[in-house]
Every structure is written in C-alpha cells, then in structure tokens.
Design brief:
This protein is an alpha/beta fold. α7 links the parallel β5 (164-168) and β6 (189-192). The radius of gyration is 20 Å and the shape is globular. The N and C termini lie far apart (54 Å). α3 (33-45) crosses α4. The protein contains 11 helices and 14 strands. It folds into 2 domains: 2-66, no CATH class; 128-294, 3-Layer(aba) Sandwich (Rossmann fold).
Length: 295
C-alpha cells in the first residue's frame, strides 16, 4: 500500500534520484542483511576456516561489500575512467569499447551507463566467473547464436572472426541500440525478436525449429536468459545431438541447482564441459557462473 502511494505521489525522476543517492543502499543492506553479516564474519575469522572458494568469496565481500564478482581482479576496474558520448545521427548514447561504439538505450543516463559498462567489462575479464570463453579465438569461423544478447558486447568483441551472428533479443529497450551497434556489420548480423524456449509459437522459438532449414555445423551457442536456459536447451536437443563442431556457453547462476541440472543434461548428449573460474554472487547465494561445453 505504501509502495503504491509512494509511486503515485512522487515523480519517477525524483524517485530515481532518491534511489541513487541513498535509498538503494539502504534497501540493499536490508535485503542482504544475512549475507552481509555472514561476509563480515568470514572476513574477520576466515583465517580460522578452510580456504575454499566460498569462504574466500564471502571474506572478500566482508571487506569490500556485496558484489557479483567477489575477487580481487574486479577492484582494478573501480577507478577506470569511462566516457559516455552521444551520437546525434542514431540519437543514442554510447561508450567507445575497443575503438567501437557500444550503444545504450536513450532512457539511460550517464551514471547508469558507466555503472553498467563497468560491470560488463568486469564480467568478461579473463579471470571472471561470468566469462563466456577462455579465449575469443574459440569462435573463429563459427556461427554465433547470441541468445539473450542485451547490449551485445560478446558479439561485438568477436564480430570480426565470426562467420555469421544471430542475435536473439526481444526486449524492446535494446533493439534500437543493438541495431546501431551492429550497423557496420549488418551483412553478417540477423536479429530475431523472439524468446528462445522449448516450443515455437508467435512469441517463442526453439533452436531446433530455428535451425531446421539451416546448416547445424560449426556453431557457438551462448545463453544468458535469466533462468530459462534449461528450457532453451531442451528445445535444442536435436541440434545438440547431431551438430558437428559445436560449442556452448551457458549461464548457470540464475537459478539454484542449474549448475547440476545443466551439466547433467549436457553430459547426457555426449558433451564434455568445464565451469568458468570461481563463483558469482547472485540471488543471495554463491554459484558457478558459466558452463562451457564442447564435443
């Protein structure tokens, strides 16, 4: 009741200002109180405990605060200077990423863009638990299915060595920025505005159905789709069983138990796999971030 009244009486722009100034920090503290307390304990008394990944991750957060990437490398990015610019032709803000324009939604202010971009480059650091591949050269000559593309940084980093890119993204917020980002490579990039699932209908498509009239060799499937990765994998069973020279990079941190469920599913189809380094903090828990699969 109070939340509805607050949203009705206070303009959105002012609510955002309040959230960014202090309310967000207060809410984060109370929502993560148990984890914060646990992290402080591990920071103070971790020297008495085994040096496991979980113990060390909690100890890191006890010292530096709650973060999705509880490892020393992420501190290297804290003071990185990030400049937000504006493209008057596309009418969109962007940052210069490896000498290329990475566009963001028009509704994003500079503060949010800087925060989001810093997180993007942290998560794709070679030491990160969210890193999709060991080396980008693994995608050389492949067709990428970028499932859950969002801003498209992974495809942008590998665009020159890819044969073809299919970007699956149906969040209207990202469609215009994505098309602006990949305008120089429009000859090799195709956008699919549907959810990837285990069925095909007006708003969903399965990978098996999407690829039924296309070659299914030399593929790279990347999935980062907010916890429905296993459903999307079920809709790609025929492709995964029959494709040659195929690699997968699947996020496993969105749902509790996904590292076990997805690794079991992948193994049943004859894939070898490894997890990315370390752990991620997400959903008030620590989890393996990405499973990398090949056969």
């Amino acid at each position: 009741m109070l939340t509805k009244l607050y949203r009705k009486l206070i303009p959105k722009s002012f609510r955002i200002f309040i959230y960014n100034k202090f309310l967000g920090k207060i809410l984060t503290f109370f929502r993560n109180f148990i984890v914060i307390s646990k992290s402080k304990f591990y920071f103070l008394f971790g020297w008495l405990l085994p040096k496991t990944d979980k113990n060390m991750a909690y100890a890191f957060m006890g010292r530096y605060g709650i973060t999705s990437y509880p490892y020393q490398y992420m501190l290297e990015y804290k003071k990185k200077i990030i400049k937000v610019e504006f493209d008057t032709i596309e009418n969109l803000p962007y940052v210069c990423h490896n000498n290329r324009k990475l566009f963001f939604p028009a509704s994003y202010n500079s503060e949010k863009i800087i925060k989001d971009y810093r997180n993007l480059i942290i998560e794709q650091d070679e030491r990160s638990s969210h890193r999709y591949v060991r080396q980008y050269s693994e995608l050389n000559g492949k067709t990428l299915l970028d499932i859950g593309s969002a801003e498209g940084i992974f495809a942008l980093d590998t665009i020159d060595i890819l044969k073809k890119v299919y970007i699956f993204e149906c969040d209207g917020l990202w469609l215009k920025p994505l098309k602006a980002t990949f305008a120089p490579w429009i000859d090799k990039v195709t956008f699919i505005e549907k959810y990837v699932s285990d069925l095909t209908n007006e708003s969903n498509i399965s990978i098996d159905d999407f690829l039924k009239d296309n070659a299914i060799d030399n593929l790279f499937l990347k999935m980062d789709i907010e916890g429905v990765e296993l459903s999307a994998l079920n809709g790609a069973t025929n492709t995964l069983r029959n494709a040659k020279n195929i690699n997968l990079s699947i996020c496993t941190y969105h749902r509790k138990g996904d590292p076990e469920r997805i690794s079991m599913f992948i193994s049943s189809l004859g894939f070898n796999y490894e997890f990315s380094n370390g752990l991620m903090y997400w959903g008030k828990r620590l989890s393996k971030g990405v499973i990398r699969c090949y056969k």
